[in-house]
Design brief:
Shape: globular
Radius of gyration: 27 Å
Strand order of the largest sheet: 10-11-14-15-16-17-18
Bound molecules: 2'-deoxyguanosine-5'-triphosphate, calcium ion, zinc ion
Largest sheet: 7 strands, parallel
Distance between the termini: 63 Å
Number of strands: 18
Structural class: alpha/beta
Helix content: 40-55%
Length: about 650
């Protein structure tokens, strides 16, 4: 099999047992289960690998210890055959016949499984019935309507695959922000501990907090005499799957999941966030370009590789207007450099001890990396009106979170406890309404249960108050916006909530409709007096599906009018890294129309609360200040806004 990125049996980096880690084996077993399914193997073999992978993933004890003492066989979910295979893998570095399986299954079939919405079983059927064995082949088969006519598939599946292929092509090789940033921060932390490293910063789209990240860019400064030692140490760091190139001052690497273990620090949100990233990063890899430069050059190289390209072009233009040349090496007066180029010209660079001095030389205030998209930030920096961007420490609570009353994993008390641990003053619970069905079953809270939840929250708040603690739980609902623009529940039930977050969940219906029909339905829901917050406005799931068509500008304008009339109608920035919806490109539009924003983690577990940090990243990218975001308000003011 030609290589599919992230697929295959990893090379061992050790000369003695254990030759492989638990995570490496889990990844391979997951892949083997898919390969077996693609190969048409019997379902019991497929399940054996799936079960073993899950069992290994949940092991509490050290795998090497278990194998050494021959105790793995006693682990539930791992049969005799696979227990002995795992032993060979760990102790000898031998994977039995698994390598042959990777060779046997066509690469194209594996790539097809990467299409959102297409699993191995159906890929196998498409291969058997239509001879399709690649993503391109499937695209042609769909365009010729062959898939729609296939028994058990139909026009809907065909459309889904075409959309999925489109998305796959656009996402190829990109990672969601949480994954990219997790890898980037972990690598930065490791590099910062190498002797001789003076500074190290993440650059590129990760530093700019784009919602997806192509590759990581890092810039390291070290004195010239230490640079080769530093490069050697970087190449020896754990978590490097492959070195694509190392020449001069540039290193090109592929990172693997193990770089994440320990060491991705984001302050208070630290532990749960890094655990969440490790869980979410299952078998992903990411490329990293690292540049090691001298301390004088560092600010220039950092600014250049932070980008964006469009921002850099504007900066370079401003330099030219001042008779200067700006590049990754320095900021040089043209009059001094003559025909010199590159590093030779840089010997004549103006001295800048940090990025802000580069901006100052060009008549600009420093621009936060998130803003560097050539969206007006140059003009703002020129007129000293760069916004004072919101910080994660300014968040005092969040209003969209789930509990075990709907599809959350933690109870009300547990969610509130974690919110307090984060230093928040309040948490809003907004479980689903009954219209949301998953697998034919409603997962929402029925009206009777709403009453029970209300009294639970009341008594929790009373308990807090009795203890002299100002922490509050607000009782909200994530209430479905039904396709006809009505809200779920009746008026009386909706009237009992502190806040009603209206969200669309019947995505397929909304996706199949005309944009204006959707826009009208959404506006009509927003106009309902009980409605307070628009939840994940477009329903997109990054790298999985596009949102439904809706004219957000019309929606925002109407919400602005309603706010002007004295109603509270806010838009959430859903901070789940899977959504990041409202998109950052629309944040300023909302603000300018007088619509307040809320940063909501949409947490389904205590760990999920920490996702607010991604929402703050997106809010910053959208130019927002603390005053534009409601959940920077203290508890008394939120209480007042929500009507006590
Ligand atoms: P990505 O990796 O696709 O998520 O996006 P970036 O922004 O990280 O882009 P990347 O990795 O290709 O390059 C990193 C930065 O280097 C980019 O943001 C700006 C700078 N850069 C790269 N190529 C050029 C170029 O041709 N001209 C200019 N002015 N800057 C460039
Ligand atoms: Ca990049
Ligand atoms: Zn939700």
């Amino acid at each position: 099999m030609a290589k599919v990125i992230g697929w295959g049996i990893p090379k061992s980096k050790r000369s003695k047992a254990p030759f492989y880690t638990k995570n490496q084996i889990v990844t391979v077993f997951d892949q083997v289960a898919i390969l077996l399914e693609l190969d048409g193997a019997n379902v019991f073999r497929v399940r054996a690998y799936q079960n073993a992978s899950r069992a290994l993933g949940q092991l509490e004890k050290d795998l090497f210890d278990l194998v050494s003492e021959d105790l793995l066989i006693q682990t539930k979910g791992i049969g005799k055959g696979l227990a002995s295979l795992v032993k060979d893998i760990v102790m000898e570095g031998h994977w039995g016949k698994l390598g042959e399986l990777y060779d046997k299954v066509p690469t194209g079939l594996v790539e097809m499984v990467g299409i959102p919405g297409l699993g191995p079983k159906r890929a196998r059927t498409l291969f058997e019935e239509l001879g399709v064995s690649s993503v391109d082949g499937l695209k042609i088969a769909c365009e010729e309507n062959l898939v729609a006519e296939l028994q058990g598939f139909g026009a809907k599946s065909q459309k889904k695959y075409l959309d999925g292929i489109d998305l796959l092509r656009r996402n190829q090789g990109r990672s969601r922000l949480d994954i990219g940033l997790g890898f980037g921060i972990a690598l930065r932390n490791r590099i910062s501990k190498i002797p001789g490293v003076m500074e190290v910063e993440l650059a590129g789209s990760a530093r700019r907090r784009k919602e997806t990240i192509g590759d990581l860019d890092l810039v390291v400064s070290a004195a010239p005499e230490n640079q080769s030692g530093v490069i050697g140490s970087i190449l020896g760091l754990p978590g490097i799957a492959d070195v694509k190139g190392a020449g001069g001052s540039k290193i090109s690497l592929i990172l693997e999941q193990s770089v994440l273990v320990s060491d991705s620090s984001r302050g208070k949100l630290d532990k749960s966030l890094s655990e969440a990233i490790i869980n979410r990063a299952q078998d992903s890899t990411i490329d990293a370009q690292i540049r090691v430069v001298s301390p004088e050059m560092f600010p220039f190289t950092l600014a250049y590789f932070t980008g964006s390209k469009e921002h850099n072009i504007r900066m370079r233009q401003l330099a030219i207007e001042r008779g200067l040349r700006l590049n990754e090496f320095g900021l040089m007066p043209e009059s001094l450099i003559g025909d010199l180029i590159g590093i030779n010209a840089a010997a004549h660079s103006l001295i800048c001890k940090d990025e802000s001095q580069i901006y100052n030389h060009l008549g600009l205030d420093w621009v936060a990396p998130e803003l560097r998209e050539d969206n007006g930030e140059i003009e703002a920096a020129m007129s000293k009106s760069i916004p004072n961007l919101i910080e994660v420490t300014e968040i005092r609570g969040a209003l969209h979170n789930h509990t075990t009353a709907s599809d959350g994993q933690n109870t009300l008390e547990e969610m509130a406890g974690e919110a307090r641990r984060l230093g928040w003053e309040y948490i809003g619970i907004a479980d689903h309404s009954p219209a949301l069905r998953i697998g034919g079953r409603s997962i929402g809270v029925d009206p009777d249960a709403v009453e029970i939840q209300a009294s639970e929250i009341e008594s929790f708040n009373r308990k807090m108050a009795d203890q002299g603690d100002a922490f509050r739980v607000f009782h909200g609902s994530e209430c479905d916006i039904l396709p006809d623009g009505k809200l779920d529940y009746n008026e009386d039930v909706r009237g009992t909530f502190h806040h009603v977050i209206g969200s669309v969940h019947a995505i397929n219906t909304w996706k199949s409709r005309d944009e204006q029909v959707n826009t009208d339905a959404m506006i009509s829901a927003i106009e309902d007096p009980s409605f307070t917050v628009l939840g994940h406005p477009t329903g997109r799931v990054l790298q999985v599906r596009e949102g439904f068509p809706v004219d957000m500008l019309q929606v925002i304008k109407r919400m602005g009018e309603l706010n002007g009339d004295g109603y509270l109608k806010a838009i959430e920035i859903n901070a789940s890294p899977y959504r990041l919806d409202l998109d950052w490109r629309l944040c300023r539009t909302a603000r300018d129309h007088g619509v307040p924003l809320l940063i909501n983690p949409d947490a389904h577990s205590v760990e999920g609360l920490s996702d607010v940090s991604y929402g703050v990243d997106i809010a910053r990218k959208g130019w927002l200040e603390a005053k534009d975001v409601l959940n920077t308000l203290p508890v008394e003011e939120i209480d007042q806004l929500l009507g006590g």
